[in-house]
Write a structure and sequence with these properties.
Layout (H helix, E strand, L loop, with lengths): L3 H21 L3 E2 H17 L13 H9 L9 H11 L1 H6 L9 H19 L6 H11 L16 H16 L1 H16 L1 H15 L7 H5 L2 H13 L5 E5 L4 E2 L6 E2 L4 E5 L4 H4 L35 H16 L2 E4 L10 E2 L4 E2 L4 E6 L9
Length: 367
């Protein structure tokens, strides 16, 4: 909630991109555009750094982030071999010095966070970002033990902040840009969805120049659009868990043993969980249609669901509000007819290309 102003500032940069594209007729690739936005949003919310990756795409922060995420063009085919060895032969991988993280990336971000924490402790400056929130929670722990048996002195503050910031990065970078890309495709494939989302924004936000957390919370249909894009295009159709105790599946002779890895393919239950599962339809998540939460794994389910879910909705909604408030996304010569996911690229073959057109002035309700 307190990070909305930081993320909104990043979303404002999208307007410059779309304004230029609308005037020139330039074709845009969705993940490339929103990837820059999500890096900027994570940099300001998680690391206390303000960037503009649209104007400075070669910044050291962005280049290191792309290396750490092994984005296309920043990875090697040998990475797959290394990952396989690390999984099946962890002792051998340690002897060979293999790591899930590219060399130098963790050290780079750790240095940034370490300097930021030291500066804030020395100056008392607050930004109400992830770093401040984590420090606040640690400071709440008194001398007495917590429910988990921890004392304040037991916590390595630096490690806690760094590890959470890195998790925040992985939870929010590639997943958010990929989700925004699929939402854009849903707008292209079914323009009525885009029109209805824009109408809701007009009704909720109106002519307000500042978008608040209350505005974002009330954009229910837009949230349904996001969820439906995740569900329909199958980006996160698998929930993986580790069994903690033996469990016999009801009405069967099969027992899931403790320590067994369980993969739940939520798409298998679509017919039972949604009223129109075969179609791209945001109303599948309308409470009036009684959606079953266990048929959707976009942010995980249960006590170990995505820790960045609330932040993700904020970042996703702000980007979409800024995209379709003054512009209409339309198909272009490079727009594919159907999305086909390539697991090797972690993206769709052919990308998601689109153009933007300015809306008529009477429909342009946010400045």
């Amino acid at each position: 909630k307190m990070m909305v102003p930081h993320v909104q500032k990043c979303a404002e940069n999208l307007d410059d991109v779309f304004a230029s594209a609308a005037d020139s007729g330039e074709m845009l690739e969705a993940k490339a555009v929103f990837g820059k936005y999500t890096i900027d949003a994570i940099a300001t919310s998680g690391f206390g750094i303000e960037l503009n990756s649209f104007k400075d795409p070669d910044s050291l922060f962005r280049q290191t982030a792309l290396r750490m995420a092994r984005a296309e063009g920043y990875s090697s085919k040998l990475d797959i071999v290394k990952f396989f060895i690390m999984i099946v032969a962890p002792k051998l991988s340690r002897l060979l010095g293999f790591s899930f993280m590219p060399a130098g990336t963790i050290e780079f971000f750790a240095k940034i966070i370490r300097q930021t924490v030291e500066q804030r402790r020395a100056t008392g400056i607050r930004r109400n970002d992830i770093i401040d929130l984590l420090l606040d929670e640690i400071n709440k722990i008194g001398d007495d033990k917590t429910e988990n048996g921890l004392k304040k002195e037991d916590i390595d503050v630096e490690l806690a902040v760094i590890s959470n910031a890195i998790i925040f990065f992985f939870a929010g970078f590639d997943t958010s840009s990929l989700t925004l890309a699929t939402v854009i495709f849903s707008f292209l494939d079914k323009p009525v969805i885009q029109d209805r989302a824009r109408q809701e924004i007009e009704e909720v936000v109106g002519d307000s120049k500042v978008i608040t957390s209350d505005h974002l919370r009330d954009l229910k249909y837009l949230e349904n659009v996001i969820n439906e894009a995740l569900r329909f295009y199958g980006i996160t159709s698998n929930t993986m868990r580790l069994c903690t105790k033996d469990y016999r599946v009801p009405d069967t002779d099969f027992t899931i043993r403790k320590g067994m890895q369980v993969n739940v393919l939520t798409g298998c239950f679509a017919e039972e969980c949604f009223f129109n599962p075969a179609e791209l339809d945001p109303d599948n998540f309308d409470i009036k249609n009684n959606p079953n939460k266990f048929g959707f794994s976009g942010f995980g389910i249960g006590p170990r669901n995505c820790i960045g879910m609330r932040y993700a909705y904020i970042a996703l909604k702000l980007a979409l509000v800024k995209t379709i408030t003054k512009y209409k996304v339309v198909k272009c010569e490079k727009t594919v007819d159907k999305l086909k996911f390539d697991i090797g690229k972690n993206y769709f073959n052919g990308g998601i290309w689109f153009k933007v057109e300015r809306l008529e002035k009477e429909n342009n309700f946010i400045i």
